[in-house]
UniProtKB/TrEMBL annotation:
This is AIF family member 3. Residues 72-167 form the Rieske domain. SUPFAM superfamilies: FAD/NAD(P)-binding domain, FAD/NAD-linked reductases, dimerisation (C-terminal) domain, ISP domain. GO terms for biological process: execution phase of apoptosis; pronephros morphogenesis.
């Protein structure tokens, strides 16, 4: 792969470089196709609406016959210390056995998001945090308490007899390893052609989808309409740049059937062109007009516009949809691919094309990718995965060109609406995700929101995980159940089978403390402001990022001096077996 800084793009020079791929991590979590439907859920502690677990207090429903269950002795009572977890086999499937405060509990062993083994995660204060992307699950109920992902975990009955720990589990739950929370249905009488919805959601990404599902989980029984410019039901957009061949079906988060079953109406290929906050109405490009009582704007970001010659050419792409990704993969096959921009998306596409394209060249303004986000040392280490630096001024032949030069908020339709936008086009919201207009909420990549760890300074955090949180907070606010944003931002990027994990909010960091070996790409980087750790990134060092997220999420601070010593054993979890 060629990496060029400050280069122009046209049509000559060919430089071919052999790239030896590093051995892939076993998990390749950034790529694992989600296949069938899945992730998401709101996360009230202990899920008051009932959690579908199979515990002692609930009599067995009549339709659950004994043969639907499996029971197994899984270990001796003294095999687990307090604070330890073990993955155990019940014959019909596996479960995660946990011991905390002298009590045993058992639940699904795989994170419903991408299937990470939770035994390798972090157990703390009644929940388990996923080692890959930081989702949290309550060990008593299995409910998801922090994101990413949509679904919760099944829980299983545990008892101790004659010093043996025995688990009784529903076979179907053991197989599926996930469950969605109970949801209310819509009781309002609705004419589907009616131009009124109690809640109208613009955007079908994680913020919009979690908002809709949270409303139903919390007992909301009026009409919910979610509209999107996409032609597909909600899908896992972060995978587009990591797995270019994936179809919309493989990336699907929720099926149309799922949405219909829970009375969440989805309007596809609908672009909003105007909002009238006085009449509480939205106008679409096709002329449709819909009134609302509550509005949630979660339109995400769009590619930063670029000026280049030949805008009508068919081999220049931004990567926004499964069709874009599929076209890039097809056109780059044994051809010359050029990536413009060193954003995470641009670099992920470059990595994904190395085993397809004849050559891959990356053009960027920065001499080191990710320098602003991850610092120069980490950026250089990652660049070694993909590097041959050429002098500027080369002219490259491009059979397919991918623009990955950053993004801007998709809010131009709000310019005359009276909804407040800042100078960069972001919607400003309060801690309840409410805009300056009554009844209008916003979340996800489009917002500047008050961030508690930075004394409620308004920030923009365009992470997939953070959008889930915004959707949940907005839904609860709409129902008059305001809740604080309690989360640690979590981000990941996957290239060449290697995954970078990142937690915290590192904006404005003034130093980076590296532990481990950058050359071997087995390291942890602590980002500090003044004397405090504000963020962490790692490669091949699990579950350190989730461990740090757990510490930061509990409200504790990690001091710079605590990580400078070289001894970070106190941060590395010894609790799993």
């Amino acid at each position: 792969m060629h990496f060029l800084s400050g280069t122009c793009l046209c049509c000559a020079v060919e430089v071919k470089v052999e790239l030896s791929l590093l051995e892939k991590e076993k998990e390749v979590d950034g790529l694992s196709p989600n296949g069938k439907a899945s992730p998401f859920a709101d996360c009230r502690p202990n899920g008051a609406l009932g959690h579908g677990s199979d515990d002692d207090s609930t009599p067995l429903p009549l339709y659950h016959k004994p043969r639907d269950y499996v029971e197994a002795s899984v270990c001796h009572v003294k095999d687990l210390e307090n604070g330890q977890m073990r993955e155990v086999d019940l014959g019909s499937g596996r479960a995660l056995l946990i011991k905390e405060h002298g009590e045993f509990s058992a639940m699904g062993h795989k994170c419903p998001h991408y299937g990470a083994p939770l035994v390798k995660g972090v157990l703390s204060k009644g929940h388990v945090r996923c080692p890959w992307h930081g989702a949290c699950f309550n060990i008593a109920t299995g409910d998801i308490e922090d994101f990413p992902g949509l679904d919760s975990l099944p829980t299983f009955q545990v008892r101790v007899e004659k010093d043996k720990v025995i688990i009784r589990a529903n076979k179907q739950a053991l197989q599926s390893q996930k469950r969605s929370k109970p949801m209310a249905r819509c009781s309002a009488v609705i004419n589907s052609s009616s131009g009124f919805s109690h809640v109208l959601i613009i955007g079908s990404g994680p913020a919009g989808l979690v908002c809709a599902e949270t409303l139903r989980q919390e007992g909301f029984t009026d009409r919910i309409v979610m509209c999107t410019m996409d032609r597909h039901p909600p899908y896992d957009r972060p995978k587009l740049s990591k797995s270019l061949d994936s179809t919309a079906e493989q990336l699907r988060l929720r099926s149309m059937e799922f949405l219909q079953d829970h009375d969440i109406e989805l309007l596809t290929e609908k672009e909003v062109v105007a909002i009238d906050v006085k009449t509480r109405s939205v106008t679409f490009e096709d002329g449709l007009r819909m009134e609302y009582r509550k509005l949630f704007i979660a339109t995400g970001s769009k590619p930063k516009p670029m000026n280049y010659k030949g805008k009508d050419v068919t081999n220049v792409f931004n990567i926004r949809t499964p069709e874009d990704a599929n076209s890039i993969a097809r056109l780059a096959n044994n051809k010359n691919a050029v990536i413009v921009g060193t954003s995470f998306v641009g670099m992920e596409v470059a990595a994904a094309l190395t085993d397809k394209a004849h050559s891959v060249s990356v053009i960027g303004i920065e001499s080191v990718p990710f320098k602003k986000a991850l610092g120069e040392k980490v950026g250089k280490a990652i660049m070694k995965l993909k590097e041959v630096v050429l002098k500027s001024g080369k002219v490259l032949r491009a059979d397919v060109c991918v623009i990955g030069a950053g993004s801007i908020p998709a809010t131009s339709f709000l310019k005359q609406s009276g909804i407040h936008l800042d100078s960069k086009g972001f919607i400003t919201v309060n801690k309840m995700m409410q805009t300056n207009v009554d009844g209008v909420f916003a979340g996800g990549d489009v917002v500047m929101f008050p961030f508690p760890p930075r004394n409620n300074k308004k920030v923009n955090i365009p992470h997939w995980q953070m959008a889930h949180v915004h959707g949940r907070v907005a839904a609860l606010s709409m129902m008059g159940r305001a809740t604080d944003i309690k989360t640690v931002p979590y981000f990941w990027s996957a290239m060449f089978g290697k995954t970078i994990r990142y937690a915290g909010y590192g904006d404005g960091f003034d130093d980076v403390i590296i532990q481990g070996d950058l050359d071997e790409l087995r390291f942890v980087a602590f980002y500090t402001r003044s004397e405090e750790v504000v963020a962490v990134a790692s490669m091949n060092y699990d579950p350190i990022v989730s461990r740090v997220a757990e510490v930061l999420g509990s409200g504790k601070t990690i001091k710079k001096r605590d990580v400078e010593t070289g001894d970070i054993s106190w941060l590395i979890d010894k609790g799993s077996q």
